[in-house]
Structure formats: structure tokens, C-alpha cells
What we know:
Elements: H1 3-13, H2 17-29, H3 33-45, H4 53-64, H5 69-81, H6 89-100, H7 105-117, H8 125-137, H9 141-153, H10 161-173, H11 177-189, H12 197-208, H13 213-225, H14 233-245, H15 249-261, H16 269-280, H17 285-297, H18 305-316, H19 321-333, H20 341-352, H21 357-369, H22 377-389, H23 393-403, H24 408-423
Helix pairs in contact: 1-2, 2-3, 3-4, 4-5, 5-6, 6-7, 7-8, 8-9, 9-10, 10-11, 11-12, 12-13, 13-14, 14-15, 15-16, 16-17, 17-18, 18-19, 19-20, 20-21, 21-22, 21-23, 22-23, 22-24
Amino acid sequence: MSADFQKGLDATKRGDYATALREWKPLAEQGHVVAQSNLGWMYQTGEGVTQDYKTAVKWYKLSADQGIAFAQVNLGLMYKEGQGVPHNHETAVKWFRLAVEQGNADAQFNLGQMYRKGQGVSQDYKTTLKWYRLAAEQGLAFAKHNLGVMYQKGQGVPQNDETAVKWYRLAAEQGLASAQYNLGMMYNEGQGVPQNDETAVKWFRLAVEQGFARAQVNLGTMYKEGKGVPQNDETAVKWFRLAAEHGNAKSQHNLGVMYQKGLGVPQNDETAVKWYRLAAEQGNADAQYNLGLMYHKGQGVPQDYKTAVKWYRLAVEQGDANSQYNLGQMYRKGQGVSQDYKTAVKWYRLAAEQGNARAQHNLGVMYATGLGVLKDYVYAHMWGNLAASNGNENGGKLRDFVAKEMTPAQLEKAKDLAQECVKKNYKGC
Length: 429
């Protein structure tokens, strides 16, 4: 190792990248392969130089062509991400394979990624596992974490939560935030380990110390619900806010809920709307529903039925049952749309099939009154009965009201249909 190269190496350890550049660039221009790969890294990351992907590729290529595995892996990543070169998964795979031949763990992991996602190769979970295992055997935490994911999802192996926990734990103990979060989730849900809120909190805390947003969301939820920690809305808000400010949609929605209900913060509908909107624009269905509701009721914004309908529609595209019910309401009443009983029935039915008790009741009302469907007391009774069994008092009132107009045979049929509908999980009733 030349003295000049060592000077550059010592400089990087001090964070003095300007000196590293001054020492390494002449060496790289003279063909020093490690200096070339290091320059590639500096230009890729923007350490000590203006970030320049094309120049990074140039230096990586010179080094990679001479067999330096570090450069081969990073050049593969540049092709995978389309940084400084056109996207080319096949070329990425080529460079990963060359580095794999030298036993490089990062290359093994990335080649596994390509097989998992079917990028540049045919998707093949078993081959994915092979490369992850090899990288994990060399201690690579990302590979251990991903092995955990494969076992949890049953991808290429029989589904096994206990084995998933084993791999998550190994990666988590190396400090990998995503593994700490997933291990916390396993304890939170009691998957592969006995359910334990305190241990879940422990792992979520370790992940949040590294700024892992999803763990911040979950830690906030634990404080909100008083699971594994004393209940504390103010602390819940703190964690929701941290994740929300980093763009996490679930936390933005949760923060909106806290402002709307005045939990841990002064009640403020306008601020609730702000956070709902940020989450809704990222496609969060709960936020889309709640933002629609704010426009529907005129809370925090001027009442605007058309805008309410817009947000409900976006949420129903994701199957949100509450939005399906509310969209049914809008069509039944002609709010923000032309009144259309048949379309109201369509949306009530979709929500009712998901077990939404309010929709089941309203669908029963439509059958009882003959609005949007043929009048039919048997189905009115059935849906009212189902709504009542799901806790809707009005469903019980509807059932008892139409029962007075029905024959014993009709009552028997309605009860039989309700039992069959439950067995079918409310689908196709």
C-alpha cells in the first residue's frame, strides 16, 4: 500500500475528504484500482466532491474491470438504480455475479434481491434464499433480516414465524432498525413468540433511536393505547409527529385524529384537516375517509359535498367500508352527486359485505321501502337482523318493524338467509 494511498485512507477516517481526494486522484489516474473504486464511492455519495453519478460510474468501471469486488457491487447498483447510466437490470446482475464469484457478501445479498423481485432474472424465491443464506453466513444483517421476511411470508420456504423471529433477532442484535421494528411487531402480535407488549416496546425504542419512522408510529400507538407503557397521549403525539414530519402517511393520519379529538394536543379541526390531507395525498385510505368526512360535515373546512365525494371515492378504490357506506349516503340524499337510489344500494351492499353494520341496516331500509331495489321484507328483515347482530340498534328496530308485516314462512326464510349469509361472510347474500 503506497504512502499516498494510506494518507487518503487516514484522511477519510478523520472525515477529511478533501485531503483524500487530493491523495487518491493522482493514484487513480495512474491505474491504482482501489483508489479508483474509492473515488467512485466519493462521487456516488458526494463526499468531498460534488455528487456526480456519471463520474462515479467511470471510476467504478475502471476498477471493476480489474476485478475489484467493491467496485463491481456498486457498479451493479448504479445500473440497478439508473444512476449515471440507463436502468439495466441485466447488466446489474452481471456485475453482482462477478463480485459473487469472489465471495462478496453485499453482492450475494443484491443478487438475492434481483431473484426475489425478478429483475434481470426470472423471479425465483429458492435462488433468492440461497444467496441470502450465503450473505447471512458472512454476517450481513440485511440478509438475515430478509431471510426473516421470507420465512414470515412463506416465500420459497414453508411459512414459519418462529424461524422468522430467529433471523429478525440476529439482525436486530446487529443494530438493523428494520429488523428491530419487525421483531417488535412479532412480539406485539404474538407471532412466533409469546405476545409481550413490553418487549415489543423495547425493540420499537431501539428502532426509533435510529429514526425508523414505522417504529415511531408503533411506539406512538403503544403510548396511545397504554400497551407496554403507561397510557400517555402527549407522548403518543410526540412519536406520531416525528414520523409525520418525515412523511409517514400513517402517522400523519394518526396525528390528524389526535387533533380532531383533542388527545394530547388542543382540539383543532383545521390542524386535523392539514394532517389528514397530507396522508390522504399519499394514498392513505383512512385519511381519505376522514378528510371526506371533514368536508361532509364542514369541520375545519367549509362544507363541500362534492369534495367529500371525491375523497370517499379515492378511499373506496382501496375497499374502505366506511367510505363505501358514506358514498351510499351521498347518493341516497343527493349530496354532491345526483340522487340515485340504485347507486346508493350498490355502495351500501359493498360495505355491508365487509360487515359494516350501518350499511347492513341501511340496505335493509332500502329493501323495506323499495328504494333502488324491489321491495322485499324478507331481505329487509335479514339485513336488519345482521346489523343488529353486529351491534346496530336501528337494525334491530328495522327487523322488528318489518316482522309485523311478514308471514311465519317469510320470517323463517329471513332467519335462514341470515344464517347462510353469516356462513358466507356476508358475500353474495
